[in-house]
Specification:
CATH topology of the largest domain in chain A: Fumarylacetoacetate hydrolase, domain 2
Oligomer: homodimer
Order of helices and strands of chain A: EEEEEEHEEEEEEEHHEEEHEEEE
CATH class of the largest domain in chain A: Alpha Beta
Strand content of chain A: 35-45%
Number of helices of chain A: 4
Largest interface: A-B, 32 and 32 residues
Radius of gyration of chain A: 18 Å
């Protein structure tokens, strides 16, 4: 099942997407039962980010092939960082290249969308707390990441967390193909079978640190092949069984370009 | 003026504290005009965390005396990290010592409470975006901070962000005395005159990265003298002109103590 978040004539709502029809639901974190009697044609609606996370919890180096490629030891435990809710944008919205950075990179990722409050959850129970999966781009100011040591500034700029297009339920998160296309050319391609810490283990681990709330997202890490974007570029994250999250890159308004 | 957040017979509300009286306000981020006709006696009310931040943006090493004591170069720019909303607790609520850590430290800080949306704000305009100031404890699992390199896990445990007791308006943030008392003994003591990046500069800097929302907090860094707590301890952050934020430390329920 595909769940989207939509805007139509001043109203914002969640809906189940069936072919070209959208059936509104009151609260997909409570029930996927459509609100009776209403339906919309998909092309009439504006598509928004599929959820409003209170936080995005992200995992560093988590692809076995990427770690080996870098010659790095596999981590013993997940290394976490947070992206703020203010970084979220939806499909088609622009990634804004900030004046403060000279190297902004894409990072294609599978994102987990939390269904219900998760605190001290065992790995076997993790699935009960997951609504579904979506595509994410963990946009990163690579120069600032290196300069600061801490990754927060580099990853927290407004627009640095594209999410979408839909939340897809009932998927096996362990065999998703994750790809990134830059201006139509494939730059990243791997499978979540390569995850060092698979999805249910991540949910359990994170829930032993901080309570996860409905709509919160977990970004599961990015595979090999990260690289820079420029204003004017078109970036797409594709996850098999989920869809295509496309965003243009634009220069921050009112600023002077600081790269050639 | 002192603004608190209160619970009384199932109702949660903000209020202006005048002596022993509390005058409810509808939304202190919009107006500090009391809702006419209602008042409460302070001792009748439960005191909650004074605001509900969507995010807490925190600054690493930011006290000149502390940096010099450590023999470290003064940073060129603030180093940021985030604490999630789920870490917030109020006055008197317990700091929960997690099973995952063997060294949990206190860190007394002055916290800035944002009044209205701040994006790309100049230093001269920062004051217009601040509602007031409160006390914060940036509780940190020091062992996990060292192990991970990234600070997020160490600082994001549930209960690791005590805030309160009140938001105080009209203060000069540049000459606050910040102290920490552990079981009545003073362990930290400095002045915000020692801040490497003062408050208005921090607001401006952070607002050029991520949009700050009403109720968001900025933690301005901690002075020298950080150290460990143990279950059973009583920790107090005192900021001059604001008040005293007191919290007990308890062991995480259902777990075996892992320290002697």
């Amino acid at each position: 099942m595909r769940i989207g978040r939509f805007h139509y004539r001043g109203e914002i709502f969640y809906g189940i997407v069936e072919g070209e029809m959208v059936l509104p639901v009151a609260d997909p974190f409570q029930s996927l039962e459509p609100v009776s009697g209403r339906q919309f044609a998909l092309p009439e609606l504006d598509l928004l980010a599929p959820c409003l996370p209170t936080k995005a919890v992200c995992v560093g180096l988590n692809y076995r092939d990427h770690a080996l490629e870098l010659g790095m030891a596999l981590p013993e435990e997940p290394v976490l960082f947070l992206k703020p809710s203010t970084a979220v944008i939806g499909p088609g919205e622009p990634i804004v290249y900030p004046a403060m950075s000279r190297q902004v990179d894409y990072e294609a990722e599978l994102a987990v969308v939390i269904k219900k409050r998760a605190r001290q959850v065992r790995e076997e129970e993790a699935g009960d707390h997951i609504l579904g999966y979506t595509c994410a781009n963990d946009v990163t100011a690579r120069d600032l990441q290196k300069k600061d040591g801490q990754w927060t500034r580099a990853k927290s700029f407004d627009s640095f967390l594209p999410l979408g297009p839909y939340i897809v339920t009932g998927l096996n998160p362990g065999d998703r193909e994750v790809s990134l296309y830059l201006n139509g050319e494939r730059k990243q391609h791997s499978s979540t079978a390569q995850l060092i810490f698979p999805v249910y283990r991540l949910v359990s681990f994170i829930s032993r640190i901080m309570t996860l709330l409905p709509g919160d997202v977990i970004l599961t890490g990015t595979p090999a092949g990260v690289g820079p974007v420029q204003p004017g570029d078109h970036v797409e994250v594709v996850v098999s069984g989920i869809g295509r999250l496309a965003n243009p890159v634009v220069l921050q308004g009112g600023t002077v370009p600081i790269f050639a």
